[in-house]
Amino acid sequence: xxxxxxxxxxxxxxxxAWKPLPGGFWRIEEAQHFLRRVGFSASPExxxxxxxxxxxxxxxxxxxxxxxxxxxxxxxxxxxxxxxxYQHIYKxxxxxxxKRQLRQEIQREENELFRSFAxxxxxxxxxxxxxxxxxxxxxLQDVFVVxxxxxxxxxxxxxxxxxxxxxxxxxxxxxxxxxxxEPAMVRYLDLIQNTSRKPNExxxxxxxxxxxxxxxxYTENDIKEASRAFTGYRIxxxxxxxxxxxxxxxxxxxxxxxxxxxxxxxxxxxxxKQPAAKTFIIRELIKFYLTExxxxxxxxxxxxxxxxxxxxSLSYLIETFFQSRLFFHPAYRGNMVKSxxxxxxxxxxxxxxxxxxxxxxxxxxxxxxxxxxxxPPNVRGWxxxxxxxxxxxxxxxxxxxxxxxxxxxxxxLNGNEQRDLEAARKADRGDFxxxxxxxQKVLSLAPDDLATHFTTYxxxxxxxxxxxxxxxxxxxxxxxxxxxxxVRYAIIALLQSPAYNLC
Amino acid sequence: MNHLPLTRREFIRxxxxxxxxxxxxxxxxxxxxxxxAQTPAPERDRSILVIIQLAGGNDxxxxxxxxxxxxxxxxxxxxxxxNGLLNLNDNLALHPACKELHQLYGDGKLSIIQNVGYPNPNxxxxxxxxxxxxxxxxxxxxxxxxxxxxxxxxxxxxxxADSIDADPTAIHVxxxxxxxxxxxxxxxxxxxxxxxxxxxxxxxxDLAYEKLLQADHIEGNASYLQHTMMNTLVTERRVEKIIASxxxxxxxxxxxxxxxxxxxxxxxxxxxxxxxxxxxQSGYDTHSNQLHNQERLLTELSAGMxxxxxxxNAHKKDDQVLTMTFSEFGRRPAENGSGGTDHGxxxxxxxxxxxxxxxxxxxxxxxxxxxxxxxxxxxxxxxVYSSVLDKWLEADSSxxxxxxxxxxxxx
Lengths: 503, 411
Description:
The complex is a heterodimer. Chain A is mainly α.
């Protein structure tokens, strides 16, 4: 089987690449591609709804500014009292043993809050109206990486995530400035230790390499000088950012050839005058949303110019990118490996299931699939694409699918799980496993129609024809005795197959 | 016949292989490549590295005990060990739980490298583990694991790695890939459960999955996924089959660690081309009730390692295998108020094998009276790695670690 040839400027003009897809081309397949890439799934209902509007209309709705994920009372209270609690431990408690116990108590609470935060986020992102934005938040989290393992402070991680969420409707340099003041980042990249006397280059280096320019577009000297501009960033009472003047280096610095008494924000402005800043994040966007293959430079440069002309506005970038003819090019369809987050939330949406209420199980499953919530392997973030796939993560993905089709044995649940389940029932959460009754419904279809239904529903166009025959042979006669079981095997196999792992 | 082949021979020549190729009419490109490639002569004599992670930070001072040093007993009024010590020399002894390791030490099959650590130690589990696994300095961040960089350097561009039943480059026990294995390029890594997996060879759900895998897939990621999924199935079945029919020549305790090592022994015995194995034992974070907990852990470690070595000896595989432990840090010299110790710095590590030099290597830590003071490392852990890389795996450590470190003469 051959694949559609990827576009080159010779076959696909640079000046057309970023124009919106002409209205007549907004059809079922295009809408499926769009929905699976912008969000996590393309159910027939969602496709129908999307086709009633345009990509532009959809994006404006999905990325509306002002979104917020609700902070739980428990988290707010923890945040409001933590400083005092530590003050108490360090200033009033004298017994070492008691100190230790109080500190452990805080750590235990913090860890519990983090796990609840993770679950809350999965519930939130699973709701189709939030999916596009939350996927973009995941994209930004993979640029502005912080790791829970190192930061270990849920209120800070929550705040950082909210800043990124709000950042979607701002311009990118502005977002960079906000991120440089986020206590989670200040701690994660050691800005807190960066003073005029003892500069720490960690933040400045990653700022150039991972946030704005990419390797090879700055010198070691630029890093040294820039790190002096980011001095004096402090945090008081654990959660409040401030700049301490006497720790700030007030001497002139020369960054990218410009000399002055720069502070951090000014260095960020100077950075965005560098040509590489116009294209860096576009490359990241392409890797995350479009393809791992090289996209010809002229396309990237053209969008970079447009984006810079629009003041590096992220909304502009989102609208232009996701409506563009290049984004819809047939060569880029059905060939992206879903991330574990995409895989899980996509499964929930495709199967109309709620996120399972079992915290330990869900978070463990994400970790074994290779994407533990807020814990990328290092400062570079997750690598995406084929890096998601190896024997360990494949087994984890298969187990997850098996689980979604297993029946729930309530007697086997442990205490925590029973508590989780009860809470979910009280909160009126939906089904989180596929019941036998639901599978029964599709049996009214003939095997050919059923196979077509499954392939259209679950997988992308390029794989459909080759899967049809295999599915039909698995399904056999839908009217005979073992049919219900075979439907179950067929659908499980399809959700574990290469095609379903792609979007 | 629609079962996936279990072995290379079955795949290329046997009915299973032919049936498999015939099933979809046209063999995907990578299968054709694999089928055309000649079966290489198995390399029975390659050296193999087995890593045992002691997760949580093993207390070094109660592992190798300076029993003639008063300072030790002053720092540890309740945790200081006195009875049943297993002497290594006039001043140092192993923890009483390490009977089998002591025996191996006596036989010259165990090297104990003392006081291993690194400059400016970090006391966070997470960060210090990362430093050990990526072999970085305390203040620099490396993205690949030290063995991941070894795979990148030594195992890249091997066409055999592309074929359907090539052995994995590295295997780990557990459901998470160790950071030690993280690499720039993708390599064939295989993870297994210490209990094994129920063989679902004729489960109809599995057969349905296989049927879909055998459908024609387009070039690119679909074909890559198909390849990896088939590889995983084939490898999983081979591995479970090998392990199920393995006759161990020593009795392994039922602990998770020992059972993991038994699985590793089976695969080594089957002459897999895999050269690196990783297993982990957790629970060493002994902030409280250390006397009991560490004794249990070291008992498991000592018995597990010794059963493994005996088994290798009996199968004449011992010349090929080097087993090394590591832990993210040692613990504070002074005990805390809850019968435990807090996060510290350097600690000893064990290297076991028939080819090791044996004995105590490196300098014992210097103890001071100040309860706030920590141990100062005397051997850099990257010196240990560089010896493993250069002398055992015959790689170039300076390429992999980025600089030269002084070798530790245990191989």
